[in-house]
Write a structure and sequence with these properties.
The complex is a heterodimer of chains A (about 240) and B (about 180). With about 240 residues, chain A is of the alpha/beta class. Chain A has 2 domains: about 180 residues, Flavodoxin domain (Rossmann fold); about 30 residues, no CATH class. Helices cover about 45% and strands about 10% of the residues of chain A. Chain B has about 180 residues and is of the alpha/beta class. In chain B, about 35% of the residues lie in helices and about 25% in strands. Chain B contains 6 helices and 7 strands, in the order βαβααβαβββαβα. The chains are: A alpha/beta (about 240), B alpha/beta (about 180). The interface between A and B is large, with 66 and 67 residues.
Chain lengths: ~240, ~180
């Protein structure tokens, strides 16, 4: 049975959307005959250190992460920096594990995650690792906000991809395309969304949280510039 | 103009660290007001994805660390310069941790911009943006291109106005001149 190291790169840890998705991938992996994975949460310091050490022994590593300011979270980049010695190992003819990735974002379109996918593909090449592919999925934040029953199709897609990874050591291209959903909205859809975003109902989830926190009146606060111009406001830093 | 430099080099003894400060010196000598933040010396706890900066204390990180200093230095600047060596194919984890804590600069509400979904601005204006990349060990031209591509997306989402990328393989004086010319 092939061994799998399942790495959760979410700064939120075990209760994250990334981990929810990784769990479904692991179910598919086990159903297809893969060994029960070792799961580590990079946000926990002990797990982080264990992950760096376990990387070298693993046959397959699946690293999942949320998109943070359009790239990997700083936490994940710190893990990647810790893998630097593995580049030299690969250059000297040593082996590194098969690498598979999951990138999930709050944006509805897949296009936001594509530059990171390109980075991760190059990372596999840098490490001399066979590249199993990157699962790109938008709309991740909505997973927290709706009943689990409405996510059944997504969970099934993830189980299928987990099974493919166990059997073929790579994700299927049609399945990756299907789970990514919309790449970019058509001009008509974009125009409709543009109008919809101007309605307060579209911001319902944020508004509900702002109100329950007593922060509603402050929602448009711009605390680092008091009057909206560069010339005004207090400057705390010693410029010049 | 007001220029904020985010120095993403963690090693104060490195030649790239010296290069960034030389760049700051050149910009100051040209008459600009320069603030250099050595990120390695700041208390940056990193983003935990709590969204407190959007729904609890709008515009501010709830952690009360130095990320507020970084955010203030960004919105007060006419030009923001992010400087880092490229190792393992990207800018430093230190610089990325600082970038993750910049989301209070935008609003949670979404809008359509250029046919893409983005966050709405929180401020009426944002600085121009320049990226200064130091080729680290094993960095090739593709790594620099991928790094610039990721930062281009970040700049677009954070509403930074102009984007310019310079490679620190020539004198700081020349790079300083180009940064100002592009802004």
């Amino acid at each position: 049975m092939t061994s799998l190291l399942l790495l959760d790169g979410s700064p939120r840890g075990p209760r994250s959307n990334s981990m929810k998705m990784l769990s479904r991938l692991a179910e598919g992996w086990i159903s297809a005959g893969g060994a029960a994975p070792e799961t580590l949460h990079l946000v926990r310091p002990a797990d982080f250190d264990r992950a760096v050490a376990a990387f070298a022994q693993a046959e397959v590593v699946l690293l999942g992460m949320p998109l943070y300011t359009d790239a990997m979270p700083g936490l994940v980049m710190a893990f990647i920096e810790a893998l630097a010695p593995r580049v030299a190992v690969a250059a000297a003819g040593g082996r590194n594990p098969v690498l598979a990735f999951l990138v999930q974002s709050g944006f509805p379109e897949a296009l936001h995650s594509r530059p990171l996918e390109r980075y991760l593909q190059k990372l596999a090449r840098r490490l001399g690792s066979p590249y199993a592919g990157t699962i790109v999925r938008g709309g991740g934040e909505a997973l927290q906000m709706r009943p689990d029953s409405s996510n059944q199709r997504l969970w099934a897609q993830l189980r299928t991809l987990g099974g493919q990874l166990a059997r073929d050591l790579r994700f299927g291209a049609p399945e990756l395309r299907a789970i990514a959903g919309v790449e970019r909205f058509s001009p008509v859809t974009a125009a409709l969304l543009s109008v919809a975003f101007k309605l307060s109902i579209a911001q319902f989830c944020w508004n509900r949280q702002l109100k329950s926190n007593g922060a509603w009146d402050q929602r448009f606060a711009a605390p680092y510039r008091s009057n909206g111009s560069t010339s005004g406001g207090s400057v705390a830093e010693p410029w010049g | 103009m007001r220029i904020t430099i985010l120095n993403g080099e963690p090693d104060p003894g490195s030649s790239f660290h010296r290069y960034v400060h030389e760049l700051a010196g050149q910009l100051t000598a040209s008459g600009h007001q320069v603030l250099t933040l050595d990120l390695g010396g700041l208390d940056l706890k990193g983003c935990s994805g709590c969204f407190g900066c959007w729904v609890k204390t709008p515009g501010r990180c709830v952690k009360g660390d130095d990320s507020g200093r970084v955010c203030r230095a960004v919105v007060e600047a006419d030009l923001l310069v992010a400087a880092s060596r490229v190792t393992m194919g990207f800018t430093s984890a230190l610089l990325k941790r600082a970038a993750d804590q910049m989301i209070p600069l935008v609003h949670p509400y979404l809008e359509l911009e250029g046919g893409e979904v983005h966050h709405r601005p929180r401020y009426s204006s944002y600085p121009g943006f320049a990226l200064v990349l130091g080729p680290g060990p094993g960095a090739d031209a593709e790594d620099l291109e991928i790094s610039a591509g990721l930062w281009l997306r970040l700049a677009r989402n954070l509403k930074f106005r102009t984007v310019f990328t310079a490679v620190a393989d020539r004198p700081a004086r020349e790079v300083a001149f180009d940064l100002v010319a592009a802004a």
